[in-house]
Specification:
This protein is α/β, with parallel strands linked by helices. It has a single domain, classed as Metallo-dependent phosphatases (Purple Acid Phosphatase, chain A, domain 2), CATH 3.60.21.10. It contains five helices and twelve strands. The longest helix has 18 residues. The protein is globular, with a radius of gyration of 17 Å.
Length: 234
């Protein structure tokens, strides 16, 4: 199957996502009428079971999951069919289980513990054919330089994970023109979950990516002075 209009979402970090993230995604859906939705990871934050220090003033593990499920159901209503790529935050429960020697047979699948339907499918990575017959590879984050990943795989590549990176780069050889797109994130940086970054000089870039007729385009979520979305999509 060839896809003409693709939306790429990354790094929502639910329940610590930007308060206008879903409204922004709805507006993009209305304008572009996507035929394929790819979420390239960290749809959940799972701060309470992080491998690093977690803030005790945030949700406990159980409360975080219950709060996350409310937002996940809201997102599922917007996008009942979506491919999701495994990622470091969203897979924390499985990584914790592996660390402590728990067999997979004891664990629920994402769909079950989040209460979503079979329209959401988790994969290790994702490759599709675009409407211009080119191939596109989706991964959560393999290198700080996404164009190097595209060169390594020999096809256009999209990734997230790096919250401060929002870019498109091109590479050409005698046979093809390929590109790499880094799509930022959709988090609420003022949340205590991201206190680790409060003294960073570079700030997180809020937005996502789309691919139309084989060509990538970055879609920043432009914020007003109060940190809320300005309500416009380009």
């Amino acid at each position: 199957m060839k896809y003409k209009s693709v939306l790429v979402i990354s790094d929502l970090h639910i329940p610590y996502h930007h308060p206008d993230a879903f409204a922004f995604l709805k507006a993009l859906k209305t304008k572009y009428k996507f035929d394929h939705i790819v979420n390239i990871g960290d749809e959940l934050d799972q701060h309470a079971i992080s491998m690093h220090e977690h803030n005790p003033d945030l949700y406990s593990a159980g409360h975080e999951l219950e709060e996350s499920k409310k937002h996940v159901k809201e997102l599922e209503k917007i996008f009942p069919k979506m491919v999701l790529v495994h990622s470091n935050h969203s897979s924390l429960v499985y990584r914790r289980a592996l660390k402590y020697g728990m067999p997979k047979a004891y664990l629920k699948h994402y769909n079950e513990f989040l209460g979503v339907g079979k329209g959401w499918e988790w994969v290790d990575d994702h490759t599709i054919t675009l409407s211009d017959n080119s191939r596109c590879f989706f991964t959560h984050g393999m290198s700080a330089d996404v164009l190097k990943v595209a060169q390594q795989y020999g096809m256009s590549t999209v990734q997230g994970h790096y919250h401060t990176k929002f870019s498109i780069g091109y590479y050409s050889n005698p046979d093809a023109l390929i590109w790499g797109m880094q799509v930022g994130c959709l988090i609420h940086q003022k949340s205590m979950a991201f206190d680790y970054a409060k003294n960073f000089k570079s700030r997180f870039i809020v937005g996502c990516g789309i691919i139309i007729n084989g060509q990538p385009k970055l879609m920043p979520m432009v914020l007003k002075e109060n940190g809320r979305w300005n309500g416009h999509v380009s």
